[in-house]
Each structure stands twice: as C-alpha cells, then as structure tokens.
Amino acid sequence: KQEVTQIPAALSVPEGENLVLNCSFTDSAIYNLQWFRQDPGKGLTSLLLIQSSQREQTSGRLNASLDKSSGRSTLYIAASQPGDSATYLCAVVRGKLIFGQGTTLQVKP
Amino acid sequence: EAQVTQNPRYLITVTGKKLTVTCSQNMNHEYMSWYRQDPGLGLRQIYYSMNVEVTDKGDVPEGYKVSRKEKRNFPLILESPSPNQTSLYFCASSTIADTEAFFGQGTRLTVV
Predict the structure, then answer these.
(1) Does residue A25 sit at the B interface (CB-CB below 8 Å)?
(2) What is the per-residue DSSP string for chain B?
(3) Do B45 and A101 touch (CB under 8 A)?
(4) Which residues from A are below 8 Å from B56, CB to CB?
(5) By CB neighbour count within 10 A (0-12 exposed, 13-18 middle, 19+ buried), where does B72 fall?
(6) pLDDT tens by residue, A45-102
(7) B103 touches chain A (CB under 8 A)
(8) DSSP annotation of A15
C-alpha cells in the first residue's frame, strides 16, 4: 500500500530564506508526482507536476525534483516571501492521487 | 478562465436530509473525482469518473453516490447524511487519469 510522508509537519522561516520541503513515498511505481498549495479556507492550487520520466520541474521560484528509486521528492522555494505562507501538499499519482499530510509553512516578514 | 466550480461552498444540514454538492469544470476534462479532507487523515478519494456514464468507487465511498451524465458535471450525492460525513469536500478534474489535477475551492459540510 502506497504511503506518502511529508516532513516536517510545520516550518517557520524568515523572509528571504531558501527552503526545501520533503516528500517521501513507499512504492516507486508511480506515474507522476504533483505538488499543491492550500491556503486556509481555500482549495488546492496546483504548483508543479513532475512526470515519472522527469527528474525535476521548475516554475518561477519553485523547483521540484523527483527520485523514484529512493522514493523522494523535494520542493525548493527560493527567496521565500510572506505570501508563500500556506500548507504544501505532495501527491503521488497512480490511478488516483495519494496525498501526504502536508507541511505548513510560515514565512515571517 | 479554466476552473472547477463547486457549490455550495458552505453547508450545514441535519442528519438524514438528502443533499447534493455540485461540481462543474470548463476544461473538457474526461477524468473527475471527489475527495474529502479530514484532520489527521488527509485527503482521501471518494469516487471517480473516467468519462461520461463511467464511475467507480474510491477509498471511502460508503454513504455517497455520484453520477456523470454530462462531461462537465459530476455531482456528489449524500442520500442520508450522518455526522461522520462532516468534512471538507473537493472536486477535481484532469484531462485523463494520471495527468495534472485541478481542484475546486472546496465545500465545507457540517452534518448535525
């Protein structure tokens, strides 16, 4: 059974810091991996989708990597801003999305 | 604007009173699904639909029904809601299964 883990559960950093969010999964037989952002009281916003054949994907200040063999993905956020404060969720994609519990990020001004 | 629209956003109802949460997407996506989000349990799939008239159970389908009569719409039906169905519900769509998923804004349901 696929299990997805995100560590840490919460993270607080000063503005401007570069940071890395971690996502690990137990079964490497995935099609894709998708990162989302969830703001309080709002829906999930898709940030990046990494296909299983890719090693990384970039969008603006965000860079996501995927290592299927080790069952890991990381989301790198460069030059963090207070507006980046949110919960970040990763989901492995194989017939359905299997989500981690998320990392709640607070970026302090 | 490409989007997934859910209604209502908030709903308080009583045990046993049938309700429907609507979901509509304007991206011509074939694959649609419903998830519920609960503290400590995360997001779990309720039902999914590969295309019109094709639906199947996800991980937590008990107490729910769905239908897919049109490509753009995928309503979630609670025939007899119970308090354990109090949750935050999300509808999602993607071009086909296993491609990038787009989520609605969520429906916060409280059953008393």
Answers:
(1) no
(2) ---EEEE-SEEEE-TT--EEEEEEESS--SEEEEEEEETTTEEEEEEEEEETTEEEE-S--TT-EE--SSSSB--EEESS--GGG-EEEEEEEESSTTS--EE---EEEEE-
(3) no
(4) none
(5) middle
(6) 999 999 988 999 999 999 999 999 999 999 999 999 999 999 999 999 988 899 999 9
(7) yes
(8) T
A42, A93, A99 ranked by CB distance to B98: nearest: A93
User: Does the distance separating the beta carbons of A93 and B103 come in below 8 Å?
Assistant: no
Which pair of structure tokens corresponds to residue A83? 């507006």
Q: Does residue A94 belong to the interface with chain B, where contact is any CB pair within 8 Å?
A: yes
List the single residue in B45, B48, B103 with the smallest CB-CB distance to A43: B103
Tens of pLDDT along A9-57?
A: 999 999 999 999 999 999 988 889 999 999 987 889 999 999 988 999 9
